[in-house]
Amino acid sequence: MSERGSPLRHQRRRFAVALIALFLLAVSFLVIYAAAFSTFKSSELERAQGRAEFYRTTLESALDRLEHLPFILGQDPAVVRGLQDPESRFALNRRLADFAARANAEALYVMDLDGLTIAASNYSEPVNFLGENYSFRPYFQTAKNGQRGKFFAIGATTKRPGFFVAEPVRDSTDNIIGVIALKIELDELVAAWRASGEKILITNLDTIVVLASQPDWQYRTLAPPSEERLLQIRQMRQFGQEPLAPLDWERLENDEVALAGERHIRVRVPVTSQPWQLHFIVSTAGLQERALFVVFLAAISVALLAIMFIFWRSERLRRALDASHQDRKRLLREIEDRKATEKALAKTQNELEKSSRMAALGQLAASVTHELGQPLSAMRNYIAIEEMNAAQKPESLATRLSGLVRRMENITRDLRFFAQPKQHQKTPFDVAKAIENAVGLTRHDLQARQIEMALNLPTPAPQILGDGARFEQVLVNLLRNAMSAVDDVSAPKIEIGWAPAGDNIAIYVADNGHGLKGQQIEELQEPFRTDKPSGEGMGLGLAISASIVKEHAGELFAVDNEQGGATFTILLPPISKDKGQSGQ
Ligand code: ADP
Q1: Is there a single domain that holds both residue 545 and residue 482?
Q2: Angle CA 302–306–308, to nearest 5
């Protein structure tokens, strides 16, 4: 697989997966549609069955309601007499009209054996049956043969459809002398069907629609009868001049028919009193709509699910991103911490090295000062004796030696100051006292050099926990440095004092000397860093001072003054008044 081909193939695969998913979705929707449609259809079928039964009952009761009336009237002596005696026919007409009106029948009429109507309930209407011959009607034939004849037909005289029931009329010797017939109209029934909005049609054995809820279906055929049969029907004049055209009707599978191209569910029930079939039909359009609605709901559910899934995935992605963000942040923080720790470690190591170097130097200094101390004081004594002897001689050897000894003493003083301290007991000492002592120790030199000295000691002075004597050494060293710095100044001035600085106190030594010349305190306190000529200083003073200040939990700073000169400041915690110990 080439490098360039890989994403293309990936894309193709994704496209194929999407296509398959789409196909499966379409198939699922089809299945859902089919299932919903068949469910709706079976419930609709059940309903249709019920409706069909109902309509059949109403039809049968309409047909059967007056079925026995011709039989009963056939026994009526007035009817028999009417057939035998033409004189009594007028009275019979009225009698039939009365019965028809009471029974709500369209017509009641009596025919002789030739089929000629001799009396009719509608005798007084302009279109009546009197004098008409109905021998061609099957019901007449049946009744003449001694049975009940039933027939549906379009009236030959009135041109109105109706249901005919006929019975034979017998004389006293039980001979058939005529036929009495009843015509029932079914208009009201059909009107009720139409009003219901439902679709009903009744077919006879020839599949001719005899009754229908839709007027244009009536007298149409579902399956056209043969030519021969059509001829017979015409002879019976059952449907008058109706052309008996076929209805646009096609039987489909699964209880369905197509009527004028529209699919319908069809329920068919037989009518008991007649060789008829009742067809109840319902369009499937509603069912299709309902099934489509179910598919629509399913599609919406799928879409909702998809949206939820996408939302859930993006939420998960966002959370994962968040988590990785947090991890990155934590990692960065850890790196920072580590860097800081490494830095602190390096600093500590540095300080450790420094302090061990200082410790070694201290030991060395201690032994040198100890060894030199005695010979030096012996030399000073000898020189003092010499000087007394040669008092009057200026620039004597003794005087020069004395200068050399002083210089050597300066050196040892520095060294002593630097010597490793013994284990000091920490005790509280007064800041003002320490400052005054340091000034006292240097007063001689200050006066000799005519340096103006200012003391700033506000009361009450705080106390510090530590070694007072060593702390005084620091102050003495700072004062001596200041004295050196103001050496070449016309009006030399030094100020020493203390001031509160937040929770700490600041002890400062300020001068108007040559200043720090751009050097930082870190550089100045490097051991052996000095601008003094050999024998004047070893460059150890500030290094030692800084370490002593540190022993007292303090820190040493140095800055140039704006008006010239420098200020050295020791910042350190006083003993807190309530606890009686170091505030730190
Ligand atoms: P030393 O006094 O032996 O030179 P220090 O460590 O005490 O050693 O001082 C180091 C250097 O710091 C001095 O040589 C000097 O250059 C500088 N210094 C110290 N105090 C002052 C000050 N008050 N004004 C200017 N420079 C100073």
Answers
A1: yes
A2: 115
Total structural domains in the chain?
A: 4
Query: Which pair of structure tokens corresponds to residue 581?
Result: 């110990």
Longest Cα separation, the chain: 209
pLDDT for 422: 55
- Let me know if 61 is exposed, middle or buried by CB neighbors in 10 A (0-12, 13-18, 19+): exposed
For 334, the token pair is 């850890």
Residue 468 lies in a domain: yes
Cα of 482 vs centre of ligand 1, distance in Å, is: 8
Give CA–CA dist 115/141, Å, rounded.
9
What is the length of the chain? 584
Intervals of the chain under pLDDT 70: 1-5, 355, 358-359, 390-396, 411, 413-414, 416-424, 534-537, 577-584
Domain that holds residue 414: 312-420
The verdict on 441 and 563 lying in the same domain is yes
Q: Kindly report whether the peptide bond that precedes residue 270 is cis, defined as omega within 30 degrees of 0.
A: no
- Per the prediction, the chain carries an average pLDDT of 87
Among 474, 542, 563, 569, residue to substitute to test ligand 1 (most atoms within 8 Å of Cβ): 542
Is pTM beyond 0.70? Reply is no
CA of 4 to the centre of ligand 1 (A): 74
List CB contacts of 9: < 8 A, sequence separation 6 or more: 1
**pLDDT given for residue 531 in this prediction:** 78
Same domain, 154 and 198: no
| Distance (Å) from CA 435 to ligand 1 centroid | 19
Q: What's the pLDDT at 1? A: 44
Pocket flag, ligand 1, residue 492 (CB < 6 Å): no
Helix (H, G, I), strand (E, B) or coil at 109: strand
- Tell whether 208 is covered by a domain: yes
Whether 529 lines ligand 1, by a CB cut-off of 6 Å, is: yes
Q: Are residues 232 and 266 in the same domain?
A: yes
Amino acid identity at 162: G
Is residue 119 within 8 Å of residue 155, measured between CB atoms? no
Q: CA-to-CA distance for 583 and 573, rounded, in angstroms?
A: 6
Report the 10 Å Cβ neighbour count for 406. Answer: 13
Q: In Å, how far from its chain's centre is CA 307?
A: 9
β-partners of residue 212 are 201
Q: What pLDDT sits at residue 572?
A: 93
The answer to whether 224 and 212 have CB atoms below 8 angstroms apart is no
